[in-house]
């Protein structure tokens, strides 16, 4: 089975990489763009995700 790969982003001022490291997981809520929501809902466990963070 082929896995998908996703490029996602988050503003470092609203959620930092340090917070993600500490918590281990994150909930992506507050997304209002319908196309973005469609893609988020298409994500499956095991898919690859690239999340660029700036410290």
Notes on the protein architecture:
By secondary structure, the protein is an alpha+beta fold. It has one domain. Helix content is 29%, strand content 11%. It has two helices and two strands; from the N terminus they run βααβ. It has helices at 17-23, 34-42, and strands spanning 5-7, 48-50. Strands 1-2 form a two-stranded parallel ribbon. The N and C termini lie far apart (35 Å). The model has no long low-confidence stretch (mean pLDDT 85).
Using brief descriptors, characterize the structure shown:
55 residues, alpha+beta, 2 helices, 2 strands
Structural topology:
Layout: E1 5-7, H1 17-23, H2 34-42, E2 48-50
Task: Give a quick summary of the entry.
Helices cover 29% and strands 11% of the residues. The chain has two helices and two strands; from the N terminus they run βααβ.
* Order of helix and strand elements from N to C terminus: EHHE
- Overall helicity: 25-40%
User: How many distinct domains?
Assistant: 1
Structural class: alpha+beta
Low-pLDDT regions: none
DSSP summary: helix tally: 2
Oligomer: single chain
């Amino acid at each position: 089975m082929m896995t998908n790969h996703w490029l996602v982003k988050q503003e470092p001022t609203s959620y930092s990489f340090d917070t993600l490291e500490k918590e281990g997981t994150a909930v992506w809520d507050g997304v209002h763009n319908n196309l973005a929501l469609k893609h988020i809902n298409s994500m499956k466990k095991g898919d690859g995700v690239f999340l660029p963070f700036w410290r």
